[in-house]
Structure formats: C-alpha cells, structure tokens
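Closing statement on the calcium ion sub-project.
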Amino acid sequence: MSSTQIHATKNQESPGKLHGRFRARMAVPVAAAARLRLGLWLGALSLLVGLGPLASRGSAAARPDVVIFLADDLGQLDSTPYGATWLRTPNMQRLANAGLTFTRAYVASPSCAASRAALLTGLMPARNGAEENHSKPHAALKKWPAYFQDLGYEVVAFGKVSHYRHTGDYGFDHFANDSFHDHAGIPAAVELLQRRAGAAPRKPLCLFVGSNWPHVPWPEKDLGYDPAKVPLPAGTVDTPATRQWWARYAAAVTKCDDDLGLVLDAVRAHLPANTLFLFSSDHGAQWPFAKWTLYEAGVAAPLIVDWPGVVTRGSRTAAMVQWVDLLPTLVEAVGGKTPADIDGRSFVPVLRGQAEQHRTRIFTTHANDRGVNVYPARAVRDERFKYIRNLHPEFAFTTHVDLVRGPSGAREFFATWETAAKTDPQAAAILQRYHSRPAEELYDLSADPHEQRNLAADTRHAARLATLRTDLDAWMKSQGDTQRVFAAPRLLTDPKSWGPGGEIRGDTKQAPKKKNPKS
Ligand SMILES: [Ca+2]
C-alpha cells in the first residue's frame, strides 16, 4: 500500500508546479549576458514544460474512447455466449459475435463492494482495504479515474459502478444515478453519448455504465420464462418455489441485457468505430453456492471485449485473467504506461491475439457481508484444479439466501429446501453442504466444472493439494493478508443461530427484525 501511495504523490506533482519552483530558484542577480543566455534557455525550457501537457493532450486526442458496461450479480454461465441458450441475452450475444469472449475471467471477490474496489484500484482486497462487502478502499490509493485523467480522458460513471454511493470517493469527472436500483443511469449514459456526438474537439471518453440488474429484488411479474422449464444450476434442490425464483433471476438477466443493448446501440451510433467496449459482471448470482462463495458460480465472470480492428471478431480465449488486470490492460490499450505497483497485469497481448495465456494462477478472496454472511475463505486455481481454504470451518455458512425474507432475500424458496431435506436424502446432503464446509476443498475443474466432488481427501491428489496449499500461503503472505474476521460469526455448534431459526444480526437494511442483536 505504501508504494502505491508514493506513486500517487509523485503523480500529483504537475509540470506547472515544477515550472513555478524553477522560476523561483532562478530569481537571483546574474550578469546581463548570462541573464540573456539564461533567459533564452529559460524561455525554451518554459516552452517545453508548457508544451508537455499540451503534447500529452495532443496524443490524447487520438486515444480511443473506452466504454465499460458492468452487470451486477450476473453469473458467468448465465448468458448465451457462455452456453445458456435458454436465456434471452441477444445483446450479450451480439457483443460476443463482434468481439473476444474470455472463458476464464475472474473477479477478486464475490460481493459487490470488494469486487468493484479491486477493479477500480487494480489491487486485491487485502491490499486495497475493501475486504468486507459494503467497505471502501483506502482513501489515499490512486484509483481508475486518475489513471485515465492523467492520459487526458474525461472519466464518467452512470449507475452502479463502484458500490452505490461510494462513487463520489473515486474522483470521476462526473457521475450520477448511483443509488440502489436507480435505472435512470442507462438513459443518462445514452443521452451523454448523443450530446457528445455533436461536440468537437473533445477529450477522449472513459465511460462506465452499471446496470443494477440482475441484483435482487428480481422482477415478480411478466417474467417471460416458464418456471417449469428453466434449467436449474448444479447443487439446487428442485422445488416449484425454487424454479419460480430462478425464472425471476432469468427475467432480471434479460433486463440487464436490454440495458446493455441501449448502451451498445448508442456507442455504435455516436462514438468512433475504434471504441473499446468491455462487458463484465462483478460476481455471480444471489443463489446458493454462488455469490459470497469462491466456487466458479461466485467468482467466474463473463468478460467480452469488442475492439474493432484489434480483437478478432467472434473469437474466444481461455487465457486466465482477473478483474484487477482490467485497469493496466485498458491503460496500455489506450497508449499509457502500465502501473508497476498494483496487483493487476496487462493482458493486451491476449486482446491483440498475440498470446493465448496470461496468468498461471488465479487467486480469489472473501471475507463477509456484514453479519449475514461471515465466512472468510481464500482460493487459488491453476489450469485445471481449484483449491479453496475455508479459514473457519467451525462457522456456519449463511447468506441472504437462507436468512433474509422478502424480495431482497430468498428465504421463501430456501425454506422449501429445508422441508425437502426432512424426507429427501439428496436434499439433506445439499443443505448440509450449504451450511457446513470442510477446511479444504479441491476440485478438478476439467472433469467437474460445477465443483460437486471435493477431492481434498483423495490421496491420489495429495501432491496437487500440497502445491496449491503452498501457492496460496505464499500469495497470502505477499498480500499482507491478516485473515481478519470482521463480524460476529454463527457457529455450527449453535444451530439456533442459523437454519430455520437463524435471525438477522448487525447492520443490514434487509433485516426484518432485530430480536437478538448480539453483534
Ligand atoms: Ca454485485
């Protein structure tokens, strides 16, 4: 963190300030001839220093516009480019047909605030300070807007880009519509693009647009999906209520796709053809074994980049990339120098089709979501295997899915799992796996992409397990990871604190009642 702070301080020293200080130092009596020579030299220097920013702005005029569209709580597999042909996501498909689709892209952490803070700082959670959901990165860190402002960009955010009302801390030139489910950010972004089309010359644009879909609450009517026919994710207990809620999620995904279509149309109509358009999501759906977990359904993200003339149309790559890589990648893509003191690393060679690989390891972390979900975990994946370390297997795993009633939780369908578990051993096993997790999990992502068979106790994989353990230890050490527990946990030995009797504790807007405020 300290090296990044130093970097930020250096960058704040503008050429104008240097120029002023130089003039002051030169204000001493000198001989006339020397003064003339000095005057000429000073004039030349002044011209050079003065032209510095101008030269920078001159090249900035040729820099491509950049548009980043962020979905909220959209699982990687939940769109047609990633195989969900039952979903209506024509605009995600349109983008995939035009651009490059990443099949192994990962966020840093599977909750909104932690994921977005990592994106906007290029630093993983332990280093940027936003480990818990709802928390902010350290104020002194240089953030995305400053990197692009240094390159001459106007940097603008509409909708949910950081974690709701945190947007004001990031230094955007302009931002709006960053409150909960404020969908007016989409037409506002379209309006900005229309307005800029007629105005020239102008700074290049770095525009973030966040759709608050498919974050809960999900649509309740006119879903456009038949609950009886929706394919359920792996590890789901099949009940009518569960199907109803999954169909509602699907309807929210399609709403996000509609938002994407509006922005994509405006970008194509009003920005130059060489605009770089990037689409992704901050983590997976609010569903059991997805959001708030380090399983693939939690941390794997859709990532599609359209950059006409650079990426190959309709192509796909299995290069492993992370959200912290997006900042240095886009800085390099627009002609800037990639920052050396962040965790992200540029994958421009992958965009250009010059490389098929980027990272050999992907690391992900999770802490908690206030008192509703307190389940710190760390994970590493390599080309084939994923190792998850649950830091406190004595804690009960709980989330808004099993604890929270009403439209922002999912207790309405989760309760049907508890009922099914009384008579159905398979449902009972799923419920057991949901609340109680072993200290270590190991999955073969090639043979078992939905992580249903934990191989950690399988002696045939002992060497692999040992290697990934060592890799994770070394990485956590390099991050200065304190493994802090930020909120009071629920213990497996206290079953009244979770399951059907579990109550909301701590600070959460979704809390129906606070009968037992232990934390
Ligand atoms: Ca989210």
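The chain has three domains: 13-23+30-50, 60-362, 365-501. With this model delivered, the sub-project is considered complete and its resources will be redirected to Aim 3.
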